[in-house]
What does this fold into?
Amino acid sequence: MNRVAVVLAGVAAGLMSTAVSPGCKRASRPESEQVVVYTSVDQVFAEPVLLAYKQQSGVEVRTVYDTEETKSTGVLNRLLAESETPRADVFWSGDPIRPQILITRGLVAPHVSASAEDIPAAFRAADGAWTGFSARARVILINTERVPDGERPDSIRDYLDPRWKDSTALANPAFGTTTTHIAALFEAWGDEEGRAFLAGLRENGVRVAASNGEVKRLVAAGEVAWGVVDTDDAAVAVESGAPVAVIFPDAGDLGTLVIPTAVVRIAGGPNPEPSKALVDYLVSAEVERMLADAACRQMPLRAGVPTPPGVRSVSEIEAMAVDYPTLGDTVERLHPGFVAWAEGTGGP
Amino acid sequence: MSNSLARASDVRGGHVLSGFAAAVCIVAPLVALASLRSPAVGVTPSSPWIALTNPVLRQILLASAARAALAAAIAGGCGLGLGVALATVRSSWARAGAVLHLLPLCLPPYLLALGVVHGLARGGPLDTAVGASLRSSADSALHGPWGFVAIQVLALTPLVTLLVLTAVRGMDPSPVEAAALARGPFAALTRVVARHALPAAGAGATLVFLLTLGEVAVPTLLGVQTYAGTVFARLADLSFLPGEALSRSLPLVLLALAGTAVLLRLDRGGAVLPTAQSGRGPAAESLGRGTVRTTGLVTAGLAAMTPLLGLVWMAASGPDPFSALGPALGSAGWTVLYVTGAAVPLVGLGLLGGHAWARDPGRQTLSAGAALLGLALPAVVLGIGLIALWNRPATTWIYGGAAVVLLGLGGRYLYVAQRAFKVVFDAIPAAEEEAAWIARPGILSRWRWVMVPRVGRATWMVLAAVALLCLRDLDTILAIYPPGGETLAVRILTLEANAPPAQTATLALLQVALSAVLGVAVLARVARRRLR
It folds into this structure.
C-alpha cells in the first residue's frame, strides 16, 4: 500500500496547492485589502512602484505583467477575453492607445483623480476615463561606432534614405509602441503617404525586429547602424555602456512622439474602492519621480518634478501634436493592416 | 484476450474518464473560443483554409515545416548515435556526459536561447572567444533560422537519445554478440544495434518536428517568423480574432495527426518502446572499449552546457545578481505548486486512461484525438479558450485561482500521460491481467495486487516526465495564470526585456536548479527501487 499512499499524498498535495491559490486567497481577503492590476509596463519598472504602494497602503496588490516579446498575447488581450466577467481592477498601460480600446467598448469606469490635476490636459480625459502620466518618447538610437558624427539621422524619414539601406531596424508595427508611432505618422501624413512609408521600409531593407528591446540589442551590438526605440530601451542601452547615443527626432518638423503611460479603472472590477486609491497613487508626482529615477528614465509630464541628469521632462522637448483618443481610433482602424504588413500578407 | 478485458468496469471507466478529461480540458475551451465574438473592427475572419490558399501564409508554413524538418533530421541523427552510445558503454565519463546532455530537455527552450544569446553578447564568453571579426556573423547566424534550429536541436535531441536508449536496452543481445564476433564491434553497432533503433530515432525525430513546429517563444526571441507565430498574431491585442487563430491552427493540427500516425506505425510490435518479451540489450563488453562513443557523449554534454555557461557568465558578470532571488521566491513557490497540482492528477488520469487505451484500443479514437489536439495546438489558443469557458461568475472558484492553470496544464499534457501509460500497459501481457480479473474480480484488489506492482516504477517515470513538462511550460501558463501567481519561467520572460541581465540569468539558473532537483529526486527514487 506504500505506493498507493504516496499517490494519495500527492493528490492531497495537488488539492492543497489549489486551496492556497491566489484566487482562494482573494476570496477570503476583504475587498479593501487588495487590488488587481494588469500592466503592460515592463515588470522591472512597474513592480517596484506597486511594491512601494503595497508598503505604504497595506493593500495587497496582485499583478499580471506583460512581456516585451509576447505583447501579442498579453494583458489587453486577456482583459478583452475577460470582459464579460472582469477580474482586473486597474489596467496600467504602457501607452494611452490600448486603454482607448477598452473605453470604446465601455469596459472602463471613469475616475477623476485629484492627484492628476496638475497633469497637462492633453494627457488625460476630462471625464476621468483615462489618465496619462510618466511618459516615454520614440527616439533614434544610434551606434556611435557605425554612424559618424556628421551623418547622424534626425528624422523618422531617414529610414527611407538609400545611404541607410539594409542597416536600420524597426520593431514590428503590429505590436507595442511601434503600432502607435506608425499610426501617428499615418494621421500626420495621411494614409497614402503612410502606406508609401511602409512600402519604403521594405524597399530600403529595414530589419523588422520582434520588439523595441530587440532593436536596442541590434543597435548596441552594431548589427545595424540605428533604429527607433522607446526612451526606456535607450536608457538601458546607454546605462549598459554600449557605444550608443540618443536623438530626439523630427525637431522642427513633426516633433518627437511622446507616449505617456496611462491608467484606467476597469468597470465591474472586483475591488472598486481600492482601485481608485491605486489610480490616485499611480498618477501622483511621487510615482513620476520614481519612474524618472528608475532605469527606464521616464519623463514626467508635470513641470517641476525633479529629474536626474540626462532625463528631460516632456515640457523640454518638441513633442508631436497628438490627440490620443483619436489616435486610438486610427490605431484600431489600421492595426489589422499592420499585422498583415508584418506577415507579408497585405497592408493597411 | 483483450476483448474480455474490454468489458471490465475499470476499462470502461477509464475510457469515460479519459473522454471526460479531454472534453473539459480541451474540447469545451475550444468550442468556447470559437464562439467568442471578436472585438476587432473592419476585419472579416478568413477561411479555415487560409494557410493553404494565401501564398504568403503558405510560404511561412512551408518554411516553418522545413526548419522543423531540419531540426528533426539533425536531432534524429545525433540522438541515434548518442542513444546507441549511451546504451553500449559503461564508463563514468559517458554517464556524466549523458546527464549533461539530457539536462536541456528539462528546461524551457527559451532559457537555452537566452543563455546562448547572452553568451554571445558583447563581452560574453563566446563573444570573447570568437573575437570581434566573427562577432557580427556569429550574432547574425544565431538571430535567425539557423540559430532557431540549433537551439531546438540542443533542447530536443535528448528526447531522441532517450527513446533510442530505451529501444536498445530492450533488444535481444544475441544477434549483436554474434555480429560482434563475426564482423567486429563497429559492424555490430552500425548494422545491428543502430538499425534496430531506427524506428525509435524516427519516432523521436517526429516528436522533435512537431514540437519545433509549435514553438513560439524561441523564434520570437531570435526574430524568426514562424507559422505558429502567425497564429499568435491573430490573438494580438488590437486584432483579437480568436476564431481565426483557431482556423489558422488547422494545419498544425493536421500535421500533429499525421505525426501521430507516423508514431503509431513506427511503434508497431514494440519497435520504439520494448514490450515485456523484450531482451536485456547488448552487453557493453562485447562491443569494445567505446572510446569514440564516450567522446561523443562527453562532447554532447559539453555542448549542452554552452547555454548554461552563458547564463552563469551573465549572472556572475553583473552587479548584485542575487537581489533578484528574494522577489522570485514566490514565483518559485507557485511553480512547485502548479507542477505538483497538475502532475499528480495527470498521472492518475494517465494510469486509468492509458490502461483503457491499451486494453480496449478500439474506443480510444475520440479521446486520444482530442488529447492530441491539446498537445498540438499553440498553447495560447487553448489558454484563451479556457478564459472564454471558465471566466464566469459561477466559476470564479476555477478561473480566479490556480485551478484554471491546472486545467490548462491538464489539457496540454493529458495525451503524454495517457500515451505513456498505454505503452506501459501494452508491455504487460493481457493474459496476466485477464487471469487476475478471473481470480480477483474486484477492481481494487486487482489493481492492488496485479496492476500497481507492475507499473510502480513506470509511474514514477511518467510522474517525472509530466512534472518536467509542466515545469518547463511557459506558453500555457502565460495566458491564464492568476494575478500574483506567476511561475518562475513566466517571471523570467516578463523580466527579460529590460531587467539587468545578471538578475535574469540568476533566475534562469534557479529554474535550472529546480529542474535538476526534480530530475535527481526521481532518478534517486528509481535507483533505490532497482536496488531493492
